[in-house]
Amino acid sequence: MPAHGRAGSIAGMSTLHAVLQAQRLTKHYGRREALAGVDLDVPPGRVVGLVGPNGAGKSTLLQLACGLIEPSAGTLRVLGARPAADAAHLARVGFVAQDAPLYAGLTVAEHLRMGARMNTGWDDPMARDRVARAGLPPDQRAGRLSGGQRAQLALTLAVAKRPELLILDEPAAALDPLARDAFLRGLLESVAQLGAGAILSSHLLADVERVCDHLIVLAGARVQLAGDVAALLAAHRRVPPGAPLSPDAERIHGDVVRGTAGAPVALADLVLAYLNRAAR
User: Fold this and answer.
1) Is 139 among the domain residues?
2) Model pTM score
3) What are the residue boundaries of the ABC transporter domain, all occurrences included (predicted)?
4) Is residue 134 part of a domain?
């Protein structure tokens, strides 16, 4: 099923609070500006694709949303509260980092027992079911798992706490096609089972198109485009360069135009048009 057809299916199942609200959100690392006055309002019940080039601020935004770092200016609210405001809020957010950080010397089963001790809302039947379906040997140490298996275990640890929001920072970037396919299927199954929202940072536009129904394009430390995928695709069309446009239409880049009639535009072409405009 195309990702942009999913929004209505889970929108009523999540928290009533917006998943993420940012106002003039800014983050500096010394003299470098990673985020510059970002405004965002992501509705509940969405699977959000966060895309942009290296250095665009994607990881910074996700780390801010997890409460791992503090903003330099502006405000950010996640599920209606300050990120990592307290233990109860931490329990509402699951995070999967790019390198799937695990304890190499612990077995799969020991990771699950640790998850149960650290999370009061831990769903052990869910965790054991995911491990079994992913083919993870319970007695295998994490350091001896394949990249795909480590990603599946990291996802299991995030979803078995039954969060309202999953945040995933390039979790499938280093996986081979089969492992990435299995990971994305697991992600969609988990989101549907939990009735949760998710934010997925990825360079792989095919993955974003497959699983996401909301899009955020970051470039140059700023939001270039944000909204539900279906609405964004409906608002943009392909019109040959040099063709006349209506007064209220805007040519984004190349043949991608906003606010006019024309041929449908693919999601990848839409993203690339905004990235090219930002680079220009």
Assistant:
1) no
2) 0.89
3) 20-245
4) no
